[in-house]
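Honest question from a wet-lab person: if I give you the sequences of every part of a complex, can you actually get the arrangement of the whole thing, not just the pieces? Trying it with mine:
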Amino acid sequence: MAMEQGFSRQRQKERTREAILAAALELSLEHGFAQISLRHVARQAGIVPTAFYRHFASMEELGLALVEQSFATLRQMIRDSQRDPHVFANIIDASADILVRVVKENREHFAFIARERFGGQGLVRLAIRHELDLFVSELAIVLARLPNIENWSSDDVHMVSGLFVRNMVSNAEQVVEMPANRPDLEQQIKNGARRQMRLIVIGFKDWQSDAPQ
Amino acid sequence: MAMEQGFSRQRQKERTREAILAAALELSLEHGFAQISLRHVARQAGIVPTAFYRHFASMEELGLALVEQSFATLRQMIRDSQRDPHVFANIIDASADILVRVVKENREHFAFIARERFGGQGLVRLAIRHELDLFVSELAIVLARLPNIENWSSDDVHMVSGLFVRNMVSNAEQVVEMPANRPDLEQQIKNGARRQMRLIVIGFKDWQSDAPQ
DNA sequence: CTGTTAAGTGAACATGCGTACACTGAAAAT
DNA sequence: ATTTTCAGTGTACGCATGTTCACTTAACAG
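Yes, you can. This is the full assembly:
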């Protein structure tokens, strides 16, 4: 066998699985997940096509694993930012900084979500929608604890959470597409993100009178 | 030949070309443009695969034609709304109504833009980016004529135009994904679009003091 | 009326695909 | 020490694809 030596079976299987996930993520960057073939992924992962089936029953199952992995990155970002002391001092500026940094560090995951959210097919696309919906609800819980928001109705918080997530996705898309080594563009995206968040917060006060519909 | 009779050669060729465009647009709705094959499109258009080449040199060329067609729809929407008397009375409400109506009427075109903007490949993706950039500049010219905006710097107008276009695309995505016969959802999307536009307009006043960076 | 043009046809091809199957050999279990 | 397990291998298959080429035949030009 072509396995590296000195590892337990279980550890080696895990490594190969990770190689498949990484291969699919990398190939998806250029071609989109739905474009890449099982054989293509296997080649990139350094295994023979049939070995793929020892880890995933189909490409679709691999896609769902990538959704899970990508959203784990997203959730880790929220968890880390809740621990970051800067967030309490200035939540808007800190959030913009964190978003840009984390998206740059995990470009493949955020690109996967941005691309497959609309371009993907079948279960992968549905899974991303579902995860995004879940994420809106989770962020709503975080937002509800903020000083300026604690009195709002849960419906309003949920709605604002949706706005934040939509803008976050949109800003993440911009970072993903940003050419490397363009601190000017990065600053511009951060400023845009900051401004949008301020707009949302400022404007929300007026929203109540706007409701009947 | 399997051509309908009584038409000139030129007219018949035009019809077949339109059948190919329509076939590709319809198949793209379910599978995404990059997924569908030349043979698939030919079958749906009612021609033999090789006849495809009488109209397009490749699928990529067909994709570029779809970009052109889709943005023609978008531009027509702007032109029509400039003629609409309601727009002068209440530009925000009228714009939200027009956006939802036109996107519903041309779902395939807006879905194509939304999907291929990120999920597409190669020249098609680049062409969409380019058209969107152009569109931002064009909308900036329209916006610059509005009473509340006429004094703004062209940079500011361009930036606000970018915000409007991003939100328009985002709202169009929501309409595209909206299940049919859900007037409640439609109303909700319209309200969201309205509110976002108000936020942008209200908040812009504060932006000046925000600039140094 | 006659010859030319060109949109659409149909057979043929090389290639890449997903997957079935029998296999190997090192790690794990006995 | 022997057997079992199972991640990874290699071959083989049927199928859909893009593209080639020689063809038909109705519309057009003279």
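Two things worth pointing out. The longest helix of chain B spans residues 59-83. Residues 1-3, 9, 12-13, 16, 47-48, 50-51, 54-55 of chain B lie near DNA strand C (CB under 10 Å from a C1').
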